[in-house]
Amino acid sequence: MTGVLFALSATAVTPLSASTSNQHIQNQQLSEANDLLAASAANGTLRDAVVDWNTTSDGFNGSGDVGYFTDGGPPNWFGAALDDTFLSRRIAFNVYVEYWDGSNQKQLPITYMGTPSDNAVTATRTVTIYDDTRLSVPGSSVNVSTARATGDFYAPDVAPGNELYNVVEVRITAWRM
Amino acid sequence: MADVSRDRGQLIILTGLIVAVTMVALVLLLNTAIYTENLASRGADQSGREAMEYRTVVVDDVGELIDEENAREHGSYTDVRTNVEDGIEVYDNLTAKSYATGGTITYVNQSASAMTVTRGKLVRQTNSSRRFRNESEALNDWRLASGVNDDEIRDFRLTVNQGDLNSGDSFAFNVRLDDGSNTWQAYVYDKGGSEVAVSISLDGGASTTEVCSVSAPEATVDLTRGTIEGEPCPGLDWAEGLTSDYTVEYRHGENATGTFNVTIDDTEASIESSNLDSTPSSAVYVVHAVYSASFNIVFESPSLTYETPVRVAPGEP
Description:
Order of helices and strands of chain B: HHEEEEEEEEEEEEEEEE
Largest interface: A-B, 36 and 37 residues
Distance between the termini of chain B: 95 Å
Largest sheet of chain B: 9 strands, antiparallel
Oligomer: heterodimer
Number of strands of chain B: 16
Helix content of chain B: 25-40%
Radius of gyration of chain B: 31 Å
Structural class of chain A: alpha+beta
Structural class of chain B: alpha+beta
C-alpha cells in the first residue's frame, strides 16, 4: 500500500504535469504572441505602436518620465490587444523595440514588467518605417524624419536619400506570473 | 502458523514495491516519449511557420516600399527604379541581421538574373477639391488607359467628398471598363443620409446593383482590392465578366471631387497621356513608377531550407 502511494506521488510531477512551466502552456503562449504580432502588423497598428512617440517627453506616449510602461501595454490598439491577450489572464509580458543604429542593434522597452521566468516564450516581428510615417500620437502631424531632425525620435534614418527609414523589430516576451 | 503469516506479509510488501517501481519506470518512460515528441514536432513546425511569415513580411514591406517611392514622384524612371532597388537592398540587410539573431539566414536574391522590376506609371490627382475631369477640364467622360489586363493595373484608390457627389446613381460619377463586348461600371454616389455608396452595372448602366455603402464625409473606395473605407466589399469585384484587354474610363467626372491613385504597367497597357499632365500639378497627372518587382527569397534555418519566387504588386485585383 505504501509502495503504491509512493508511486502515485512520484508520478505527480513530470514535464507534462499541469503547472506554470507546462510545455503546452508555453506552446500556447508562443502562438498567441505570434498571432497577436501578425494581426497587429496586418492592420497597421503594430507600426502605430512603434511610432507612438511623444517628442516632448522623449518617451512612448503616455508613459511619463520613465519612457516605458510597467503595468500593461501602451494606450493604443496594440497595447489593448496585449492586455486582452495576456494581462487579463495573468500572463506577464515585456515588449521591446529593437532598431538599427549604424551597425549596432539597440533595444528600447515599451513595456517592462520585470525579469522573465525560465519558462518565458519570445516572439518577434519586423516592422518597416518610412520617411513619411507619421508619429501616431493624437494631434501630431510630424513624420519620423522631421522628428529625428530635431532629435526627437529614437531610431535614425538608415537609408538617407531613400524612402526607407528603418526596420525595427518588436519582441514580446511572455510568461505566467 | 506464526511463521507462515510473517512470510505472507513480506510477499505483500515485496509485490507492492515491485508494482511501485514498475509504475514509476513506466510513467517516466511514457512521459519522456511524449515530451521528446512534443519538442521535436514543435521545432519543425516553428521554422515552417517562420518561413511563411518571412515571405508575407517581405511581400508586404517591399510592396509598401515601392508605393512609397512611387508617391515621391521621381523625375525619371531610372531614379525611381534605383531608389526601389537600393531600398530593397538596405531592407534586406536589416531583416537578415534581425533574423540572424534567431539563428536563421534569410536573403532576397537581387542578382540581375533573379530580379525583375517592371516599369509603370502612377496616375494621380492630389488636389482634393478638384473634379474628376481630364487635365484640360474639357472632358467629363474621358479615358485613362487602354489595353489593360488584370495584372497590369493595381492599387486603384479613389477618395471622394460625400458632399460633392451626385444623389442617386443615375448620372453619377463612374469608372467604366470596356473590353469591346462586355462592360463593367462602378458608380460612386451619395445615397442620402450622408452615406457614400457604390453600385455595379454589367450592362452598360441599364441596371445597377448597390454593393456597399459607408457613412463618412470623405470615403476611400479601393476598386482593385474591393474595399470601402478599408472594409471588405464582397460585391466590388474588379472587371467581373470581362474576358479580354479593356479600356479604363471615367464617366460623369463632373459629379465627384476628390483624389485618386492608380498604378498601371505601361510596358503592356497604354496610358492616355493627352488627358493627363506629364508633371505633378494641381490637376490630374502622371509620374514615373515601378509597377511590380519579382525576385527569389531564401530562408534557411537549421532544420529547413526554403526558397521561393515572389512577385510584389500590392493592390492588384
